[in-house]
Amino acid sequence: MTSKRTAWHNQKTSEGMIHAQAWDSEEVFKEQLSLNIKELKRERTNYPSHWLEFINIMDFITQPPSLDYNFLDVGCGCGAYIELCKNYNNVKYHGIDFSPSAITVAKKTWGSPLSFSVGDYKDLSNKSVKDIDILHLGAVLDVLPNGDEALRFILDLNIKHLILGRVFFTEGESKVYTVKAYAGKTFVRYQHNKYNFYEELHKRNLLCSQVGDTLYIKGKNVSKL
């Protein structure tokens, strides 16, 4: 790695409040859902780039098709990835989100209320995910005000197959900033110091492949990458 080692970024309480307030709104998830439904109506080749990256990795992981996979979507939002996972007959989907508003929208939309529940990534443990084969964070590391802390927590779960969507890097210190997005609200955006990010993988002897802005990390006991 060529980037300079920097200290982990210390988050401010105000940034955590911005994050919690922005994502605790049914209006936000309805707008997200409206966009996702429009995107799902496109030809598959015209899906958003992060969806295509996800499908590329899933196509690889889910071979051979004779095996079954339990899939956990952490930070599922309005739940659109349940539709992407329907392309795989051997994948059983479940989504969690810390926002009850997100889960309300997801349950109403996809006709599979048992496939969604309220939950935070911090609720997970090695015991609770022992039967999870694929854990997906579609944008969690991008939208949390403590992205580095969340990364370490997730890596320590040692999931068999870990998909991290929309991970953004900086050569400088990990940083958090804000943007206007859904429903005109202010949201947190996070960039990880590239050196520290890959150092965390190296310390755990984890291998990583990158497809666009999406990363695939395999657990220590999985033979293929």
Describe this structure as you would to a colleague.
By secondary structure, this protein is of the alpha/beta class. The chain has one domain (about 15-220): Vaccinia Virus protein VP39 (Rossmann fold, 3-Layer(aba) Sandwich), CATH 3.40.50.150. About 35% of the residues lie in helices and about 20% in strands. It has a seven-stranded mixed sheet. It has a three-stranded mixed sheet with strand order 6-8-7.
One letter per element, helices H and strands E, the order comes to: HHHEHEHEEHHEEEEHEE
Q: What would the CATH topology be? A: Rossmann fold
Q: How big is the Rg? A: 17 Å
Return residue spans where pLDDT drops below 50 for at least 5 consecutive residues.
1-13, 16-20
Q: What share of residues are in beta strands?
A: 15-25%
Tally of separate domains:
1
Structural class: alpha/beta
Helix content: 25-40%
Mean pLDDT: 87
What is the CA-CA span between the terminal residues?
Answer: 21 Å
Instruction: Label the overall shape.
Output: globular
What's the CATH C level? Alpha Beta
Largest sheet: 7 strands, mixed
- Spatial strand order of the main sheet: 3-2-1-4-5-10-9
The CATH architecture is 3-Layer(aba) Sandwich
By DSSP, the count of extended strands is 10
Annotation field: number of helices: 8
Provide a quick synopsis of the model.
Residues 1-13 and 16-20 have low confidence and may be disordered.
Keyphrases for this structure?
alpha/beta; Rossmann fold; disordered N terminus; 3-stranded mixed sheet; 35% helix; 7-stranded mixed sheet; 10 strands
